[in-house]
Amino acid sequence: VQLVESGGGLVQAGGSRRLSCAVSGSTFSINAMGWYRQAPGKQRELVAIIKGGDTNSNYADSVKGRFTMSRDNVKNTVDLQMNSLKAEDTAVYYCYAQRVTATIPKQYYNYWGQGTQVTVSS
Question: Is the per-residue pLDDT at 112 higher than 90?
Fold first, then answer.
């Protein structure tokens, strides 16, 4: 599984930005997909994720109501629409995917994109 993010950049506080993640490889075995972010000096944290057969995404409390993740299974993309951006949203954003094997027991593999920088100026 390969993940390539795009869409990062500089945006003013209160503005919007859309990140996109192109997914390729063994997409049929993907169990979960989402977005994480890492701000300078901080640990990587979950932003949004959708797992297995779930139809709804789960969001970090800090982004609920402002960020929306969407998945296009035809285009094999996962987008993150970010609205009402705040300075504290400044971070490198990483696309994430988890692949699960059909073996018994199941094996799980995590994949990450290279990251895309989002900087929100106040």
Answer: yes
